[in-house]
Amino acid sequence: MKETIKNLTAYQAELPVDVVKAKYQLDHLARLSANESPYGPSPKVGEAIRAIPDDVLGFYPDGQATLLRQKVAALEQVDPEDLVFGVGADELIQLLTRTVLTPGGNMVVPSPTFGEYALHAQIEQATTKQVPVDEETGHVNFAGMLAAVDERTEMVWLANPNNPTGVFETRADILAFLAQLPASVVLVVDEAYYDFVDAPDATLAGDVGNYPNLVVLRTLSKAYGVANLRVGYGIMTAPLYPVMQAVRLPYNLNTYQIVGGAAALDDQDYLQDVVKKVQHERKLFQDFLREQGFKFYASQTNFIWLQVGDTKRVGELLLSQGYQVNDRLSDTWLRIALGTPADNAGMRDILAQL
Ligand SMILES: Cc1ncc(COP(=O)(O)O)c(C=O)c1O
Predict the structure, then answer these.
(1) pLDDT tens for residues 308-321?
(2) CB under 6 Å to ligand 1: residues?
């Protein structure tokens, strides 16, 4: 076995809602620990999946995910041949690290950020250099990230907006950073939460054509509300595109993912409605946190990262009242996904009593 992964522990996946309800004897449980959508997907997704004839079951799916490829290309205004699909953005994170990192190489990430990046680097026997975000604002320390790049650096990861901080970096700042990166270093901008951003000009999808070392990731798990379907995509050009296509499994997306994902993308009115609700709830929650004197970072996502002192105590308190949040990422900061208006109000009541 690879020496670097002997002591790896498995990802602590979310427990099923029914299990948590039974354990804590709860009638209502709001699962707000995995940044899922409380609104779920457009009803058209289920309709499209149910309309798939059983005949398809006996045959391998379309390995090119053509239907989805065409929809995404039109939506993002990119070449269909610049798209690699994955079983969630997770699979693309795995594929990218597998493709780019070599044993003894390294990658640079802000800290905190999404834990999957470092996990996969470790599996590839590469190391991860973590550059703390600005303590006050949560913004990425671009100068520090550049200073961390050395001759063994093969990748840089930027979740934008970042998870768990929720903080958004402008396209201009990222492009300025990219301009200073050696062309041999791949920059992955993980835009999993892009749909929730209310700043203009928020994506680098249109820049991929100008930078062979730039990759943009997206997922349908968040704003589109289909986390269970497991659909994500990466936008990239040659030389990465053909190699990533060769590295991925030939039939990684099944027909239900392709058809369901396409239906989700088709219903942009539904998406915009969800996004508006999340942005409204985010404002209410942040106004409340500000009034109450909590330290938190300004979020452009569907979750908020706030300092609570003893994370476990506050996490347990919220859970005992039916609100499951993420208390596993820090001893002092909690990540709360925004839920329904009623659930958000319920959580505010509890936080106000702290
Ligand atoms: C920043 C970031 N990237 C990627 C993912 C993975 O998303 P998916 O469900 O598409 O695998 C997540 C999920 O929480 C995330 O927060």
Answers:
(1) 999 999 999 999 99
(2) 35, 88-90, 114, 159, 163, 190, 192, 219, 221, 227, 232
Give me the chain's average pLDDT, please: 97
Distance (Å, whole) CA 165 – CA 149: 23
Note every long-range contact of 104-107, with CB atoms under 8 Å and residues 24 or more positions apart, other chains counting.
104/152, 105/152, 105/153, 105/154, 106/150, 106/152, 106/153, 106/154, 107/153, 107/154, 107/155, 107/156, 107/157
Nearest CA residue ID for atom 7, ligand 1: 89
Contact yes or no for 244/236 (Cβ under 8 A) = yes
Ligand 1 centroid – CA 90 distance (Å): 6
Centroid of ligand 1 to alpha carbon of 232 (angstroms)? 9
User: Ligand 1, atom 12: nearest CA belongs to which residue?
Assistant: 192
What is the token pair recorded at 141?
A: 């320390």
Across 284-308, average pLDDT? 98
Measured between alpha carbons, how far is 105 from 124 in angstroms, rounded to an integer?
9
Residue range 328-334: mean pLDDT, rounded? 97
Q: Which residues contact 155 (CB under 8 A, 6 or more apart)?
A: 96, 97, 100, 101, 107, 108, 121, 185, 186, 187, 188
Token pair listed for 31: 């699962």
> Is pLDDT at 12 greater than 80 in this prediction?
no
